[in-house]
TrEMBL record:
Keyword set, alphabetical order: Amino-acid biosynthesis, Lyase, Purine biosynthesis
UniProt-listed SUPFAM superfamilies: L-aspartase-like
Protein name per the record: Adenylosuccinate lyase
Keyword set includes Amino-acid biosynthesis: yes
Organism: Gehongia tenuis
Catalytic class of the enzyme: lyase
Record's catalysed reaction(s): N(6)-(1,2-dicarboxyethyl)-AMP = fumarate + AMP; (2S)-2-[5-amino-1-(5-phospho-beta-D-ribosyl)imidazole-4-carboxamido]succinate = 5-amino-1-(5-phospho-beta-D-ribosyl)imidazole-4-carboxamide + fumarate
Residues annotated as domain Adenylosuccinate lyase C-terminal: 349-429
SMART domains: ADSL_C
Lineage of source species: Bacteria, Bacillati, Bacillota, Clostridia, Christensenellales
Entry superkingdom: Bacteria
Keyword presence, Lyase: yes
E.C. number(s) listed in UniProt: 4.3.2.2
């Protein structure tokens, strides 16, 4: 991933140095296991622990001739050893090392993402409580529907993120496996104990069965989970963008001192971070598709998945890490304009209370279909002539016949829409601070 979308912590995790270090851990742990089985002298394993080294530069140099990264790695490490080098990579096939090390890295990346999500969830929780009672217009199809509160938007996203945290935990469990079962998964040249020992040391579970590789449905589930989380971030970012439009400006992502919105138009304050999240989520979905296509390999293994995974796994975790941190910044520093929310609600002349008027007329004895047609007719008149909806309703003899002016007024009380906000917050565990 390019530096622009990479945080240093995740970059270090996916660095060549860390990858080869994980490979070395697998190799040395496997040697220790062979010692316990009596196949490798203890002194040889001790010398390997003390002296085994590598440099990325030397591995790259050797790979220029071997055209095989694991062979280049083992030969580089062997150069730092003596006669004990003969026990390096003993009984292993390349993917025993690569897949097991990759799983260990993915687990670390997942734990990092888990901490990110915890921080984002806390931000959503704080903002939900802060804006619980701040009314704004709810919209369906982009059109005024009925009032909600800004806190309810944050509460919804809080609930979304709770599900995402569960998904990530499931994906972690699916990917936290290793395999050291040999060339086709039969343990022909390696004892299953070696696999159990190495996996335990690496914080992994042994795969119950494998071919030469771990099966790629695991990785597909993992990357798809990251894409779902990215989709949630995109959903939130899209809402920020929509609410920041000049005609509404109900919320606005932070605009720092010295920031520029346009090279041509000095007045611009664009939701660039939210737009960035939306764009990057498209990449995540593309990576998910690639991971699904990596599931089907020829027979016991080919390497059609390998080249794709060198890109998508590092990139997907790196991008999501970056996106979550961007979202924490956006939502934690969001500019909120309650006065603009009230102005927006007034723009539809009270039409959003049509359902309440409809229900009141039904309660007064009208057939629902008749009440619906009457309420809709007057709503269309209000919209066409930009007249207050309540005023048009009260001019109608049938309305005055069925309800008092006070009863009609009660249909236009904002607080009625917010009656059960606390109920929703209690369901989500968001009222503990009250």
């Amino acid at each position: 991933m390019i530096d622009r979308y990479t945080r240093p912590e995740m970059a270090k995790l996916w660095s060549p140095e860390n990858k080869f270090q994980k490979w070395l851990e697998v190799e040395l742990n496997a040697t220790d296991a062979w010692v316990k089985l009596g196949h490798v002298p203890e002194e040889a394993a001790k010398l390997m622990r003390e002296n085994a080294k590598f440099t990325v530069e030397r591995i790259d140099e050797i790979e220029q001739s071997t055209h095989h990264d694991v062979v280049a790695f083992t030969r580089c490490v062997a150069e730092s050893l003596g006669d004990e080098s003969k026990y390096l990579h003993f009984g292993l096939t390349s993917t025993d090392v690569v897949d097991t090390a990759l799983s260990a890295i993915l687990v670390e990346a997942t734990d990092m993402l888990g901490h990110d999500l915890e921080d984002l969830t806390q931000t959503l929780r704080d903002q939900a409580i802060r804006y619980k009672d701040v009314p704004m217009m709810g919209r369906t199809h982009g059109v005024h529907a009925e009032p909600i509160t800004l806190g309810l938007k944050f509460a919804l996203w809080y609930a979304d993120m709770g599900r995402n945290m569960k998904r990530l935990a499931q994906a972690r469990e699916m990917i936290a496996v290793g395999k050291l079962s040999g060339a086709v998964g039969t343990y022909a040249n390696i004892d299953p104990f070696v696999e159990q020992y190495v996996c335990k040391k690496m914080g992994l579970a042994p795969a119950p069965i494998s071919t030469q590789v771990l099966q790629r449905d695991r990785h597909a589930q993992y990357v798809s989970t990251l894409a779902v989380i990215g989709g949630t971030l995109e959903k939130i970012a899209t809402e920020v963008r929509a609410l920041q439009k000049t005609e509404m400006r109900e919320v606005e992502e932070p605009f720092s001192k010295g920031q520029k919105g346009s090279s041509a138009m000095p007045h611009k304050r664009n939701p660039v971070k939210s737009e960035q999240i939306c764009g990057l989520s498209r990449l995540l979905r593309g990576y998910a598709l690639t991971s699904l296509e990596d599931i089907a390999l020829w027979h016991e293994r080919d390497i059609s998945h390998s080249s794709a995974e060198r890109v998508i796994l590092a990139d997907a975790t790196t991008l999501l890490d970056y996106m979550i941190h961007q979202m924490i910044y956006i939502l934690g520093n969001l500019h909120v304009y309650p006065e603009n929310m009230m102005r927006s609600m007034s723009m539809s002349h009270g039409l959003v209370e049509a359902q309440r008027v409809l229900l009141r007329l039904v309660e007064k004895g009208m057939l629902r279909e008749d009440a619906y047609d009457m309420v809709q007719r007057m709503a269309m008149e209000s919209w066409a002539n930009s007249r207050p909806y309540r005023e048009i309703l009260w001019e109608d003899p049938k309305v005055r016949e069925l309800m008092t002016e006070a009863e009609l007024d009660s249909c236009f009380e904002l607080k009625t829409h917010l009656t059960h906000v606390d109920t929703i917050f209690r369901r989500l565990g968001l009222l503990e601070a009250y």
